[in-house]
Specification:
171 residues; Nucleoside Triphosphate Pyrophosphohydrolase; 4-stranded mixed sheet; 3-stranded antiparallel sheet; 4 helices; globular; NUDIX_hydrolase-like_dom_sf; isomerase; NUDIX_hydrolase_dom; isopentenyl-diphosphate delta-isomerase activity
C-alpha cells in the first residue's frame, strides 16, 4: 500500500491503484498534495530532498510533497508526511487550491498529478528524516523568486510549477 498511488481522472474520481514508480514511468494522473509552511516572519520553508531519493535527489522543493494513501484524505496525507519527513505535528493546515500538472523529472520519469496545495504556519523545531530530507531553510518569497530565476536547476521541476500556481492563486 505504501508504494502505490491512487489513479484518478480530471474530476478526481478514483480509477484504481498503481505502483508509484510505474505511475511515474507511465505519466499516469494520480493524487498528490503539496504543503507550504510559513513562519512568523512570513518566510516559507524549503527542504532539500535526500540524496537517496530515486528521482530529483538533492534538489530544493517546498516543505512537503507526496501522495495520499488509498482511502486517506489529502489533508490526512499531508499531516502524515509532515510528521514522517520533518518530524513535526501540525493541526492548522488549510487547503488553498488544487490543479493538475505534468512535469518531466528526468530519468524517463514524470510527475502527472492532481495536486491539492495546503498552507500552514509553523515556528517550532524539526526532527528531519534523513531518508527523505537532507536539509531545510527558511526563505522570503522575494528571495525565493529571485533564486528561482537565477538558479532554476537547484529546484525540483514540480516545485517551479507549484510555486507559479501558488503565486497566481494566493499572492
Amino acid at each position: 500500500m505504501k508504494n502505490q498511488v491512487v489513479l484518478v481522472n480530471e474530476k478526481d474520481e478514483r480509477l484504481g491503484l498503481m505502483e508509484k514508480l510505474e505511475a511515474h514511468e507511465k505519466a499516469v494522473l494520480h493524487r498528490a498534495f503539496s504543503v507550504f509552511l510559513f513562519n512568523e516572519k512570513g518566510e516559507t520553508l524549503l527542504q532539500k530532498r535526500a540524496k537517496t531519493k530515486y528521482h530529483s535527489p538533492q534538489l530544493w522543493t517546498n516543505a512537503v510533497c507526496s501522495h495520499p494513501f488509498d482511502n486517506e484524505s489529502y489533508k490526512a496525507g499531508a499531516l502524515r508526511r509532515l510528521q514522517e519527513e520533518l518530524g513535526i505535528e501540525l493541526n492548522d493546515l488549510e487547503e488553498s487550491f488544487h490543479f493538475i500538472y505534468k512535469a518531466d523529472v528526468g530519468q524517463n520519469l514524470w510527475e502527472h498529478e492532481l495536486d491539492h496545495v495546503f498552507v500552514g504556519k509553523y515556528d517550532g523545531d524539526f526532527n528531519l528524516n534523513p531518508k527523505e530530507v537532507s536539509e531545510i531553510q527558511w526563505i522570503s518569497l522575494d528571495k525565493l523568486f529571485l533564486s528561482l530565476k537565477k538558479n532554476p536547476e537547484i529546484y525540483t521541476e514540480w516545485f517551479k510549477i507549484i510555486l507559479t500556481e501558488y503565486k497566481n492563486n494566493l499572492l
